[in-house]
Amino acid sequence: MDRFSFFNAANSTFFDELYQEYLKNPDSVDSSWRSFFQGYDFQNQSYNTNDDFIPEEISKEFQVINLINDYRKRGHLFTQTNPVRARRVYSPKLDFKNFGLKDSDLNTVFQAGNEVGIGASKLSKIIEHLNLVYCQSIGVEYMYIRDSLEIDWIKQFIHQNNNHAAFSIEEKKEILKKLNQAVAFEEFLGKKYVGQKRFSLEGAESIIPALHQTIQLGIFLGVEDFVFGMAHRGRLNILANIFEKPYESMFKEFDGIEYMEDEFDGDVKYHMGYNANISFKNQSASLKLVPNPSHLEAVNSVVQGICRAKIEKDHKNNEKKVFPILIHGDAAISGQGVVYENLQMSQLKGYKTGGSLHIVINNQVGFTTNYLDGRSSTYCTDIAKTTLSPVLHVNGDDVEALIHALSFAVQYRQKFGKDVFIDLLCYRKYGHNEGDEPRFTQPKLYKAIENHLNPFQIYAQNLLKDKVVSHEDLEFIQNNFKSILEKKLQDSKKIGKVKVKSVLEKDWVPFYKAKSVDFLANVSTKITLNQLEEVADKITTLPKEHHFHRKTLRLFQERRKMVFEDKKIDWGMAECLAYGSLIQEGFGVRISGQDVERGTFSHRHAIVKSINSETSVSIFQQICKHENQFQIYNSFLSEYAVLGFDYGYSLVSPNKLTIWEAQFGDFSNGAQIIIDQYISSAEEKWNIQSGLVLYLPHGYEGQGAEHSSARMERYLQLCAQYNIQVINCTTPANLFHMLRRHMKRKFRKPLILFSPKSLLRHPECMSITDEFTSGSFQEIIDNYNGSSSSITKIVFVTGKLFYDLNETKQKLKNKDILLVRIEQLYPFPKRKLQAIIKKYNKAKEYIWAQEEPENMGAWSFVLQNLGKIIPIKLVSRRLSAAPASGSSKKFNKRQELILNKIFN
Fold first, then answer.
1. Which of 62, 90, 850, 891 could be a cystine partner for 702, CB 3.0 to 4.6 Å?
2. To the nearest whole number, what is the mean pLDDT of the chain?
3. Who contacts 641 (Cβ-Cβ below 8 Å, separation ≥6)?
4. Is residue 875 within 8 Å of 898, Cβ to Cβ?
């Protein structure tokens, strides 16, 4: 059948069904199809006897099928989708003569017309239909999809009404009104606030009526939460005319606002988020526009995390109730790697949200860069092919086509739970911002744009031509909306100080924004011995119906022995006890990151696998009261997108301990944008809170520059206004109490934990069971029991280095040096440190010891804080460009030097 390989490219389901009917009863099919299949059978027989004869009418049917298939594959290259540029020329063209067909065939009736839903038809009519479906204002890419059900659904959708929308007169008038709002709003801002940045939507105004209809259709199809993520282009227009943010509030932002909270910093108006409720035919839905930084596409994964949390928490895992909408720029979707990361995440078990709608506002220019210099691919949306997602390219001047394309997108997403892309080809009327001169770099393009009618004018002309509206109707629509804007402008002058509400305010009702005094409040984190043993029993008892590796069995036997015999608990067991006790008390736990189920250093084993079937077994399944209470997911090899996702998840889930773990601490630098722009600053910019915990493995063990330092200095530099917590625990019990404190407080702050590597199995890094059933988290650890007057030198230290120093101290039997561990670096425990200094008032020398080079680690931060109280010196590695040496021998020498300096 290789000679008939083109047959496989046609609708195989259609042919198979018809052919099976023919085999059962030849008279049951149309006579022309009967002749077709007789020829087909004859050809098969001829092929087996090396006879090359094929009846001409049969051959031409296949040629028409090839023509149809080429329109489906390549029709998008020959569309009328670009409003201001001529299309690039592609070849070969879709001329029917390229398929072995002649002018004389144009009036011949072909059964292949059934394949496009118009029945047996003349070739001329088939070509006319194909041009209307594939080569007008909408170009469709979908033939790379492998699922025949998806392919058939798409074909059925686009072949209806020749892939054109059908609207009533009232619907057309409503579209016109929304278009006018989009155009007039931008023009009003341009006149009233000359020169101010607004990143206008002008050139892409069609998106406003299209989004309006998209939301209505989504509500009709059961969506209850729409979550938007977008950059600044067009953001103000969408806030005003989709989210219905009061115009007067927006005008006030242009005039300059003052916040009710003195310490609240806020952000520029085109970064802010918003929350609204929209009703349609007695049904309502929530709309959320997530705040975003200027780092394009960073918001995407945050949106996905919010959606996943809402799906689980508010909608009983029903993905169809929550709808993510991501609005991209063409340059950003092509150039930002996190877009690819997000797409690869879209169908993974721990991160899927039922598909996203991607809308690209394709200005055909990025800042000043021409689109030909902005990507290597044909389209900015070619990344969609990695997940076999359909793409619709749409002319931004054709508002009805855009609404039709978005209708396709909403229905496709709701049916198949996959991403779908709309490439809105349009233009940017001005430069990157309204003060920029685009003619410096694109003189020809902007000459065309200067003389181009806006989408409202184009649509109004069409409706006038079709006598849907009159000139008087247009005048009324325009003047009425202008008068509304003028009134709202006057109202904006009366607005005083404002309070910025969180877009996720409802999820945070029981929690408050913490001040300094809140961090000093004591929180009970201990548990009873019965609770400890009950949790330990359940998380160390493996189900008998599964067979496990002998090392797995031994590991859990040892864990059980820790609690019930030795009464000494290591780091991994303490961590699991913390999760188990929190779950038992009604909290949830979500952990994600690379290899977190087992743990990069093989210490966690929250999920164990049976030997025979590789069935995943959660050690917390006996404690959990509901399905989503404990979740742990090995992420794909991404930091940026995954951390953004988990941050977004934490924004909706304050009662769930949400943890992201880096494989090694400094790998978090792949997600630095999320850390800088969201985790450390979002509360002060956008008034959104998070309790996300970052586990960053840290400690110098001679493993080289990339496996030693979690770059502690970077996080400490971000600390201000009680925005985050930075902790470096050195005991299993302190980890246990820290995690429980984090969840039992009445506020949430992001928490950075510099977690250990070698301490996971260090014989001295153990905690007795009494430390879990009494006590609390210790910000400072001073275990010295001797006379305070004997101490002449105090060495302050954090993390693993304490164990090296303590070992040397014990060997030397030193009694005049005190080792003080600072477990919580921020908020800095100044009062407790002052108390220690006062207690050991005979000390004459104060040292800060660290493994990191002088220009790294906590030294600068400690000097800034502790240096104001005492004259403190530094003992560390010398200044260095790299965090650590790649030579284990050099590492040992430098480590020994630190110890020698401290102990003289």
1. 891
2. 93
3. 300, 301, 338, 341, 342, 344, 345
4. yes
Give the pair of three-digit tokens for residue 438.
């685009």
pLDDT at 4: 38
DSSP assignment of 50-114, as one string?
A: T-----HHHHHHHHHHHHHHHHHHHGGGG-S--SSSPPPP-SS---GGGGT--GGGTTSEEGGGG
Residue 407: burial class (beta carbons within 10 Å; 0-12, 13-18, 19+):
middle
- What is residue 45's predicted lDDT score, i.e. its pLDDT? 54
Task: Tell me how far apart the alpha carbons of residues 797 and 847 are, in angstroms, rounded to a whole number.
Answer: 9
Q: What is the pLDDT of residue 513?
A: 87
- Mean pLDDT for 341-345 is 97
Query: DSSP letter string over 343-403?
Result: HHHTTSTTT--S--EEEEEE-SEETTEEGGGT-SSSSTTGGGGGGT--EEEEETT-HHHHH
Cβ pair 422, 408 in contact under 8 A: no
What does the pLDDT read at residue 497?
Answer: 86
pLDDT digits (tens, 9 = 90+) for 406-444: 999 999 999 999 999 999 999 999 988 887 888 898 899
pLDDT at 53: 58
The whole-number average pLDDT for the span 764-775 is 96
Report which of 579, 591, 743 is spatially closest to residue 661, judged by C-alpha positions. 591
Instruction: Compute the residue count for the chain.
Output: 904
CA distance 113 to 110: 6
| In contact, 845 and 796? CB cutoff 8 Å | no
Amino acid at 446: Y
Query: For residue 175, is it left (φ>0), alpha (ψ between -120 and 50) or beta?
Result: alpha
Output the pLDDT for position 516. Answer: 85
DSSP annotation of 38 reads: H
Mind listing the pLDDT tens digit for each residue in 268-290?
A: 888 999 999 999 999 999 999 99
pLDDT more than 90, % of the chain = 82
Q: Between β-strands 357-362 and 322-329, what pairing exists: parallel, antiparallel or unpaired?
A: parallel
Q: What angle do CA 703, 707, 711 make, to 5 degrees?
A: 135
Contacts of 457 (CB under 8 A, 6+ apart): none
What's the CA gap between 375 and 364, in Å, rounded? 11
- Helix %, strand %, coil % of the chain (to 5): 45, 15, 40
The SS3 of residue 752 is strand
Mutual angle of helices 169-192 and 247-255, in 10-degree steps: 20
pLDDT for 719 equals 97
Q: Which domains does the chain have, with CATH numbers?
A: 2-98+108-125 (no CATH), 169-503 (3.40.50.970), 516-773 (3.40.50.12470), 782-902 (3.40.50.11610)
**Strand order, beta sheet including 225-230:** 138-141, 391-395, 420-425, 357-362, 322-329, 225-230, 283-289, 274-280
- Please state whether the predicted TM-score (pTM) of the whole model is above 0.85: yes
